[in-house]
Design goal:
Number of helices: 4
Shape: globular
Radius of gyration: 14 Å
Number of strands: 7
Strand content: 15-25%
Distance between the termini: 10 Å
Order of helices and strands: EEHHEHEEEEH
Length: about 140
């Protein structure tokens, strides 16, 4: 079974839902960081939650959320491949997710330089894609 991860708002516990910004009303989103990492504005959805098969990919997003957390999650609803991810099968969006477990309750951006976090994102994305293997469906 495919494992999915989400990095973002801290303080969630198993069985809590991760809802998108449009539902929660938060103005603290990771959209600005995603765009800085190369996501196009037309693809940055505030009505969906982003999940990944790459634990370290989600760790980077947790770091970019101020004192964010890293979770293992179960996607809820239909999953859509993230058009901004350069490796197929690694990043997805869905209407919501359920927290299965707290992997790391606090991931601090200041633990590394921004450049180091971005290099980790690139390496982790490639590794996650290799782990999936060619032609393997994760949906």
């Amino acid at each position: 079974m495919t494992r999915y991860f989400h990095g973002g708002v801290p303080g969630l516990r198993p069985d809590d839902f991760v809802f998108p910004p449009v539902t929660t009303g938060t103005d603290r989103t990771l959209t600005q960081y995603a765009q800085e990492l190369g996501a196009s504005a037309e693809h940055a959805r505030t009505d969906h939650v982003y999940v990944t098969t790459g634990r370290d990919v989600a760790r980077v997003y947790a770091a970019f959320y101020p004192d964010g957390a890293l979770y293992e999650v179960l996607p809820v609803g239909d999953m859509t491949a993230d058009p901004d991810c350069f490796v197929d099968g690694v990043s997805w969006s869905c209407p919501a997710a359920v927290v299965v477990g707290v992997v790391d309750p606090v991931v601090l951006l200041r633990d590394r330089s921004v450049e180091s976090w971005l290099r980790l994102m690139e390496r982790a994305t490639v590794r996650a894609g290799q782990a999936i293997g060619p032609g393997v469906s994760t949906a």
